[in-house]
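Protocol step 6 of 9: fold each sequence in the batch and record its structure tokens directly after the sequence line. For illustration, a two-sequence batch is reproduced in full.

Sequence one:
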Amino acid sequence: MSKLTHIDEHGNAKMVDVAHKPDTERIAIARGEIHMQKETLDLIKAGQIKKGDVLTVAKIAGITASKRTSDLIPLCHPLPISSIDVDFAYNDSPPSIIITATVKVTGKTGVEMEALTAVSVAALTIYDMAKAAEKTMTIQNIRLIEKHGGQSGDVVNE
């Protein structure tokens, strides 16, 4: 097992020093799902959720959250993100919305946490927007799909 990078020699939490690392292009793609009843999915598709356009609000929330990841996760570095895209796909069986976030940066550290944060907050926003219609929605399977760039190389999980 490799040494934990966020723990010093005394077992204390620390932010990793990335000053020596070169700036390289880095990309991360994360995905997650929010499952719901068919009736709720139909309301979202038809634009009939009383709070408004669910997916537009969720997209903006995911983008905003991605940019604020270092404010939410204590040992993440603030990054000059160059691109964030949050996409949605409807799934009829089981009724759900698949959320995919792609984040890019040219920097010294990767954007996996930024992509995962975008998906997480987009899913939470969908829940918030549609909870008046259904309180049994479940957020599931948030995970890293791909990462490219950096010293550890490429990772493809699906």
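Sequence two, same batch, same settings:
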Amino acid sequence: MVEIKKLTADVDVEEFIENYVDIERFMGLCEECENYGKNWNCPPFDFDVMEVWNSFNKLKIIAFKLDFSDEELAMEYSDKELEFILKRLERMKVKLMNDIYTLEDENSYALFLGNCNLCMKCTREFGMPCKMPFKMRYSIESLGGNVDQLIEDIFGFKILYAKDNRLPEYLIFVGGILFDKK
């Protein structure tokens, strides 16, 4: 990896809801995911997602763009090698989240960088409470936000994925912090 760039932008929550939140659509997509009902930061939830959005006036979008070197991009990886690399990068989110946690106070709420991976295996799968409720946060996606469109509109990047046993040009982890509590 060549570098990690931090991208930030502040948006009004009302504007964000209007342009990027489609709970019905994204809950439907969540149902197709392997983490649905198996991760504490993934649906289904026992609360109204709109109450989270409507509790704040502002959202600071915080994205981390991980650029890969030409050498890494030229490599063709085996399935296992690529899976290992992507899991290792996924684990980086825990460290990157520290930047977001430091901004949180009693009048704000951090949003996780995608699905929670604080634990090796989420206790939700076993019907047990979250082991880290003090760190677990919901993601923009899990709350019905269209992260792909958001990143393209605000930062001018497309969300890319590994394919054909190759790394994408870059990866982007997207989180944020809701602030200016109502």
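Proceed to step 7 once all outputs are recorded. Observation for sequence two: The mean pLDDT is 94.
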